[in-house]
Each structure stands twice: as structure tokens, then as C-alpha cells.
Amino acid sequence: MDILWFLTRRVLQALAVILIVTVVVFCLLHALPGGPARGILGPQATAQQIAAFNHEQGLDRSLPVQYVYYLGTLLQGDLGTSYALNEGVAQLIGQRLPKTLVLTVLSALVGLLLAIPLGMWQAVRRNKPVDYVVTGLSFVAYSTPVYFLGLVLVLVFTQVLRWFPSQAPQGDSLAQVFADPAALVLPVVSGAASMIAVFSRYMRSATLENLAEDYVRTARAGGSRRGAILRRHVFRNSLTPVVAMLGYYVPVLFGGALVVEQLFNYPGMGLLFWSAAQSSDYPVLLGCVLVISVATVVGTLLADVVQRVIDPRVKAGRA
Amino acid sequence: MNANTGTDILEVEGLGVTFATDTGDVPAVREVSLQVRPGETLALVGESGSGKSTVALAALGLLPGNAHVSGRVAVGGTEVVGSGEDTLARLRGRTASMVFQEPATALDPLTRIGRQIAEVIRNHRPVSAREAAAEAVELLRRVGIPEPERRAAAFPFQLSGGQRQRVVIAMAIANSPELLVADEPTTALDVTVQAEILDLLRELAADSGTGVLLVTHNMGVVADFADRVAVMLHGEIVETGPVEEVLLRPRHDYTRRLLAAVPRLTVTGPAQAGSTAAPPTPEDPTDPASPVVRLRDVSVQFGHRAGAVRALHEVSLTVGPGETVGLVGESGSGKSTAARVALGLVKPSGGAVSLFGADLRRTRGRARRRLLSGVGVVLQDPVASLDARMSVAQCVAEPLLVHRRDMRAAERRSRVADMLERVGLEKKLAARGPRELSGGQRQRVSLARALVLEPRLLVADEPTSALDVRVQRTVLEVIAELQRELGFACLFVSHDLAVVQQFAQRVVVLRAGEVVEQGPTGNTLLQPTSEYTRRLIAAVPVPDPVVQRRRRAERGNSTALAGRGVTA
Amino acid sequence: MSAVLRTAAPAAEAISPHRLSVRRFARNKLAVGGLAVVVLFLLFCFVGPLVWPTDQTHTDLTQVNLPPGGAHPLGTDAVGHDELGRLMFGGKVSLLVGLAAGILATVVGTLWGAVAGYAGGWVDAVMMRIVDAGIAIPALFILLVVSAITTPGPLGLIVILGLVSWLVPSRLVRAETLTLKSRDYVLTLRAIGGTHGRAIGRHILPNSVSTIVVAATFQVADAILLVAYVSYLGLGVQPPATDWGGMLSAGLTAAYSERWWLIVPAGLAIILVVCAFNAIGDGLRDAFDVRGRA
């Protein structure tokens, strides 16, 4: 009952957010020099061609009418056609998105698996040398532009040490991507670095907060040892707020993928977006923005739902 | 005082505790010595900051890392001071265990209560998970949780405050400890629940001969529960003795002053209603023409649809000019909500509210502001009531800036200075920030701010419940004195029946958002007509061990007759 | 036990909260170090050119790609600019644009969050959905789309960066406003007929100052980092002007030919300054004892 009400409300909110995103994308489309006609017909189109196109597509009608029309085409899964690649944007994204997802999900997993124990360790060793060193390292990891970090990694691991190849796995299918795991290491590490930095900080402060909670004292008064209290109580309680932050980190992961894919020549959506930007391929650019935003909204929604499942208080709609 | 120290379950000798803080070392406890014998309850009493809780935590070695401990503490012969975490972990939960003040936060919110109890069992005894779970259910039954099999799988948030405290107690007694340290175990609870928890603790301690160190500020609880009493002041014990001696024939001057300040609920004979407050004879309070504030059939709902909570249901009450009306009830009774409705802070979903004869819901803009200029407000929390970024003088001047914008600065300053003097604050405090003041001083500043416009109505929501009894007494006296001078009416919200009895001419008893009964204080609190008010009064412990013993026996009889009474 | 500390502390020494914050900040070595780094870099970029004057407008093809040493302590770049001078020259843009964009983002976010939080109800709901939508569109993608449309000057850059990064501070300030508006002193003011304007101006905003200052510090750190991305995305300031990000991306191709001096100084400068602002933000948050990002 409560969870149903929560889900309905949350999904409606997500839909509202997606609607706002479509408005933003629609506005961007119309902010283009020459408007959507230029975007679709390409930079070589003449003024007459554009006028004819505008009339044909109803683009000389009022903006609200056009927006409704635009929403209609979106609902049919039509994101327009790339004039640089002469292919449907939806198909293009359909091919590239899974690879980007592989990269981002792997980065997120690696990031979390390192960040969470690291953050707890820091909290337990608060203000000890370990804490300072890890804090310093996470500041550096957070402050390094991904492209610079990637470059340094490439120089060190492919030129000096020669452990990994400098290119990400090529090929169109996912099977080909996984066929060469060594080639995935550097892209994944580059994508995970700032995540490790951010989430170890979150975990550190969440753990510190929980260590000061009354229930820790109760457990100690019952004869539980430090390690057991951390494992049984503090860990789970600290994890819930961190999971909630995960949703908001989805756009950052995609942003990272944009740079990482370009740097390692990994044929995912980021690279598609990058080359579209070089050739002013607007339908592809805006299609990607739309898809990534929807992915972010869905990611945030999932993180929220997961948090509700972990935390019984919120599940019952209390806290 | 006890020669045979070998049998003491808790021995504390020359204990000293100092906390290292941002502002330097703060000594909290000095040269404290005390003993608890098996089966005996020693109450450690004192005001906030006296160091009583620090002693309790030191007994189990639970002080935070910034505490420096000296002296000797031994539990069941095991040294606590200087011992490693291993020794202490073996001791805690087995030889000695603890019950804390705040049941709302004492349990892990994400772990089922059965598991939390089982954890304590398995910390000390090599039993299987299944056996521990079965024992946990048994323990829940012992502490009076209904349907323990089902409740063992509950999360803490699914239980009421009283039930959570029972779970904490179940954890504490899981391994039949020889010493139980209870740090303000009932302070966060309503009186009826407090009575049940105290009964439970007494029963458990008597059954197993457990020694109890009870830390409390409440003299009623001491009278109800303790065999011996130690009184703490500024980190030192100033008086120790049997409960009858200390409570009825105190020797130390401080103990005498402390006891004199405790508001006593008169339970027999004619009550001197309004003994502190003696305002001018109120114009007939029942006269419907002249009430200062009037709620008629007011209902309030919070939230919408599935999550809606009924906070008030058809509540009617009036406050006449110059009259003090006490609004009493337990937590969740809606007494604060009713006060907020009277102030226009909460919009009722039904019924009518009139302030000085005008309908508050229909008045807007300037007229509404003029209406509200006749109201003064004092709220419960002395810390949250004042903006920490303002000086005391700025806080008090705020209502003048809102309603007397044409007043000249010099005049305003003198008005503020005059008001501060009236509430008994020194001139030099005017430039200070609220953070530099004590709780009692802060509430006086709130009071000065509330009265600077000379309002016709003062709404006071638990104005003294966060204060120590001696401070509470002086603040109440100031309110009463100013009420005599200025003649304002007062809507006084409190959970403390004794305070209301002394302070209010009429009383309104609320329960779960409904008025249970109302009438003149004397009649209502001495001869209550409703069963609920009777139970409420019976649950209040009075600070006289002899009287309290008799009241407890009577309560026992009546609850036995009435079945299980209210459950926590 | 915390109650013991709270009640016992004032007795030990009456000290104003402001001075306590300064003291706590001063004890945080990372934060003080960060402050020193920021001051040093400001001196380096704005006073440095007076001590070490170089020509950063004209190319000098006789002095191309010289390794560090002699007349050029950090060598020269592909068109013969002195790298040390260029580091000062580019740093001016990076620091100014970063500071301005970070502050702009904080101002916009503060106003938006304060209005949403104080108004509540459907106004809040609509305003926060807009923030959610903004967060859902990754900033780098928006910047790349903008770069495909136009090439802005430094002022345009500030506005664009400010407009993609006001969302996080708006959420923080909204949360703060929600807490503050239910504080007893605000309720007391409302109960005696005080206006919304007074509640916001006299109580809510002054009490949010520490949250806002902390948010602004982190925002500046993020903005400087974002400026570094902007050139990489092809949106940066146009030559002969440059910034650290521009120097870094211009030098990327040189990385394989062992001309490390073209990227390492600029890269280190970015990392150091961003780290420094983050450390200051961290120290301020702990000193003011406010919630902010971890």
C-alpha cells in the first residue's frame, strides 16, 4: 500500500523530469542557427530548401504545436536521422549504448568496491596517517581532469611498463568487447578514479556519523566488539545514504565515459557524441542528450527504490 | 560507609573524569566514590552538568575517547579503568549492562529487534543462532512485549518509545547481569509509560538480586525506586544516604534547595491552585463574550490521503482575560498543535478559531498583524528559540521592530533594557549572544521578547521542561510575577501535572487529539471524572518515598482490577 | 555523554562561535595548506608577470619547443611562448573564470533553493523537478553541444559554466531553508505577525551563510576543473589567449614525443588549485559544522 503509493509518486516525478528534459532539448533544437531544418538538412542546405522543409514539416507553425508534434515523434521512438552517417539516430544509439553501459557499470562497480571499504577504513582510523594519505589521494584523484589522468595512465602503463594496450577493445558486439579484458583495464580505471575519490569521502563521513550514534554505544554495552559492530550495524546504516547518492552520480559517469571513450578510442555512445559534435550532427547530439538524461532519471529512480528496499523505515513511508 | 567492600558489585573510588574539548580541558567528575551492593538500587541524582551520567558511563568503561579517567572502578571484582577492550567486552552485557535515556536512538534502526537481543546473548554464551533467537523471544515476553514471536521480527521504528525501552531492557538482562546501570531510563517517556518501565525494572532487579545504579534528575523516580541516594553537584557527591533520610531529612544545603524546587503534585486535601500564580480575579472565564482566545470544534489533519494523521478532533477551549489555562497531555495528545492553532501557525481543517474576538482564519494583512501584536510566545527549546546570530538585545527588540516601526531607537533601547530587568537579567547580558547564556537565561530572554509588546495573551509551550527544577522554579516565578503586573492571559502547555497544578486556574486534559476533560484545576486534578486523568495522576511519582510506596500499592490494585491498563 | 560536553563546555571558557570556527579551521592542516596554495597561485598569476615579464601575444618561431633551462626555466611551446610566463598568463583566465563561474552558480543556486524551500508546496515541487532535469543532463554533454553551436569569449564562458553548475548548491540551500524555516525563532516571529521578508532576510539567509560559503568554495573548485575540460571540448578561449586547460590539451599530442614540459606544469597547476579549494571547503565545512558534500 505505502510502497505502491511511493512508487506511483516517484514514477510520476520521474516522468515530469523527463518531460522537462524534452522541453530543454526542444529549445536547444530551436536555438540552433537555422533551427531544426538546418540540423536535419545539414550545413549545405540553401535558404529555399530550408523554407520548403519548414513548411513541409509544419515548422512554420507555433512553437507549442511543434513541441507536441516533436513529443509525438519521440514517443514513436523516432530520434531523427544523422546526416553525417545517414542512419537513424535511434539505431545508432541502440548499437553504441550497450558498450557505454558496460564501461560505466564496470567503472561504477570497481569504484564502489574500492571506495566503500576505503571510506570505512578511513573513518575507523580517523585523523591517523592512513586517513590523511587516503584523503590527500582522493583530493588528487578528484581534482585531476579525466583526460589528463588517462594520458598519464597510458604513458605509464603502455609506454613505460607495457602492461596494457593503449586502445580499448574494438569491434561491434559485446562479445568482442569482453574478449580482450586487458584492454578494458585502463578505460575502466580512468572512469572509476573520481568515483573512488567521491564515494570514499561519502562513506567516510557516513561511517563517522554512524559511529557516533547511540546504537553503537548500546551494542558496546552489550559486549559486542568493534569489528562486529562495524560489520553488523555501522556498515549497513552507512551504506543507505551512499546508495542514495549513487543516482545523482549517473550523469557524472556518463560525462566521464564521454572523455574516456574519446581518449581510448572505444566505440561507445560517448565517441559517437564526440564525432557528432565535430561534424555538427545535431540530431545525434540531441538524441544522445535525451537518451542519457532518461538513463539518469531511471538510474536515480532505481537508486531511490533500492534505498527503500534496504531501509525498512522508508519502505513503510515513515522516515 | 560500607565496610564489607568485597561483596559490592560496583565499587567506585576516587573517580575523576576530564574531557578534552575545543575550548580546553573540562573536569566533569571529581573524587567520586560509591558502592552498589547486590540487590540494592543506588540512585545518583543531580542537575544537568553535575556529572552523574559520566559516572554511569565510566562504570562500564563507555566514556568517549576524549575522556581522561583517574581513580578506580571495579565491577564484580574486575578493574574497569585501564582495562583493554577485550576485558571490557567480556564484562559488558554479562556482568554489567546498561539501559540508556533515548529509546528512539538506542537501537540499530536496520536490524530486527530479535537479532539485536540474540547478538548480546551470543556475545557471551556459545549457543546456536536458533537457540539465541528462541531466548530472545522469551526475553521479549519477560519484558512485557505482546506477541513476542511476531514482534521479534519487527524493526525498532515499528515499536513505540516504551516498547523500545523494553527491548533495550531485554538486551540488558539477556545474560542475567549482576549490575544494571540505568541512565535516565524513563526521562524520554510519558508518565504512564514511565510507571510501567519502573515497575518492570523493579521486578527484574528483585527477581534476580541485581544491583542497580539509577541515574536520574527526577526525585519522584528516586522515591519510587531507590534504596539509597547519592546527590551530585558540580562533579562531586555532596550527600549520600538511605532514600527516606535524603529525601525527607536532607542534611546538605544543596539537597534541601533542590528538593524545595521540585514541583509537587498535591494529591490529597484541598489544592492551593495557582499558589505561584495569583493574577487579578479573572473576569468570568466562562463568559462567551470576552474570551481572549477560543477554539470551537477544531480539527487538524497532517498529511494527505493514505498518510493522513489526525492531530486534533473537535477540540473546544477558551482562555478568558487574565486567566491561565493549562493544556496537559502525553506526547501525541495534540497539546502543542492546539497551541499552534491558537497562534495561527497551524491551519485547522475544521472548526473556528477566534483571537480577541476576531476570526483568525478570515483576518488577513494589516488587520491580522495588529491582532497578532497582542500575542507573546515562549517555546520549549531554549537553544532553538533564539537566533544564535543575534545579541540578546536584538532578540528582545524584534517584536518592536515588527509592530512599532515608528519607535525611535533610543526609546526602543530603553524598552528592551526595562524588559530585561523585569525578567531578572543583568544589563551586561544584553550585548551577549544566546550561546553564551545558560538554558534558564535563554528562556528569560524568550520571555522578555514575548512580553515586550505587553501582549494580552502569552502562549507558553512547555517553557520550562528543558530546564532543571531550580531554574524551572525561578522562571515560573518570573512569569507569575509579570502576569500579576501586566495582567495577560496565558495558555500554558505542559506535560507536567504538578507544574500545571501550581500555575493554572483551569486545566484542559487532552488525549490522542481529543479533550478528555476540563475544569478548574483544583477539582479536575483532585477529583478527576475521567478514568484517563485518574490514571495519569496515579502514574506521577511524588518525591516522598513513604507516600509514593502507598500510591504505588494503590495503583497496583486499581490496575489489577482494570486489567492490564495501558500498554506502553 | 554529548550532553555532558554541551552543558559543560560554556563553563570552561566563554568563546564566540565565530572565533571557535576560526580556531577549528586553523587546526586543519590540509585546509590551511590549501589556503596557502591558493594565495601562492594568485600571487604567481597576477603579480608574477611583473617579476617575470614575457611576450604571450607574438609567436617566436626561432624559440620553438625548447626544453627547460637557461632563459626559459619551463621551456617554450610549439609557437615559442615561454612556458613559465604562459602558466601565469593562462592561470589568470582559469582562476578568474573559475571563481566567477563558481560564484555565479552559487548565487543562482542560493536564490533558487531559498525560494523553493521557503515557498514549499507545488512551487517547491515544480522548481525541484527543474533542478532534477538539469542534473539529469550531464554538463559535459551540454558544453559539447554549445561548442558545436558557438565559441564564446571569457564572459560567455562564465555564464555558460555558471548555468550548468548551479544545481547542486540549489539543493543544499533548499535543504537548509527547509530546516531553518521550522526553527522555533522563525515560528515565534511568524506567530507574532512578522513578515516573510523579515523571516528570510533576518533569520534564514544570515543563518545559511556558512552553508553557502562552503558550497561556494566547492563550486569554485568544480568550476576551475570544468574550465580545464572546456578547452579539451573545443569551447575554450581563443588564441593568443589561453588557460591551463588550453595549454594541457594543446600539449596532449606532444606527450608521446617526450616534451613533458608542455603538459606537466599545467596539469599540476590545475590539480593543485582544485585540490586546494576542495581542502579549504572541507576545512570550512568542519569549522562551521554544517552539512555539505562529503
TrEMBL record, chain A:
The chain crosses the membrane at residues 12-32, 101-120, 132-157, 177-199, 239-264, 284-306. Residues 97-303 form the ABC transmembrane type-1 domain. The keyword Ligase does not apply. It is a multi-pass membrane protein. InterPro entries: BPD_transp_1_N (IPR045621), MetI-like (IPR000515), MetI-like_sf (IPR035906). SUPFAM superfamilies: MetI-like (SSF161098). Belongs to the binding-protein-dependent transport system permease family. It holds the Pfam family BPD_transp_1. It comes from the Bacteria. It comes from Streptomyces cavernicola. Keywords: Cell membrane, Membrane, Transmembrane, Transmembrane helix, Transport. This is ABC transporter permease. It is found in: Cell membrane. The keyword Heme does not apply.
From TrEMBL, chain B:
It is a peripheral membrane protein. It comes from the Bacteria. Its main location: membrane. SMART domains: AAA (SM00382). Keywords: ATP-binding, Cell membrane, Membrane, Nucleotide-binding, Transport. SUPFAM superfamilies: P-loop containing nucleoside triphosphate hydrolases. GO terms for molecular function: ATP binding. Residues 12-259, 293-537 form the ABC transporter domain. The keyword Nucleotide-binding applies. It is found in: Cell membrane. InterPro entries: AAA+_ATPase, ABC_Ni/Peptide_Import, ABC_transporter-like_ATP-bd, ABC_transporter-like_CS, Oligopep_ABC_C, P-loop_NTPase. Residues 269-290 are annotated as: Disordered. This is ABC transporter ATP-binding protein. It comes from Streptomyces cavernicola.
Automatic annotation (TrEMBL), chain C:
It comes from the Bacteria. Gene3D superfamilies: MetI-like. SUPFAM superfamilies: MetI-like. It is found in: Cell membrane. InterPro entries: BP-dependent_transpt_permease, MetI-like, MetI-like_sf, OppC_N. Keywords: Cell membrane, Membrane, Transmembrane, Transmembrane helix, Transport. The lineage of its organism: Bacteria, Bacillati, Actinomycetota, Actinomycetes, Kitasatosporales. The chain crosses the membrane at residues 30-52, 93-118, 130-149, 155-173, 212-235, 260-281. It comes from Streptomyces cavernicola. This is ABC transporter permease. It is a multi-pass membrane protein. Belongs to the binding-protein-dependent transport system permease family. Residues 91-281 form the ABC transmembrane type-1 domain.
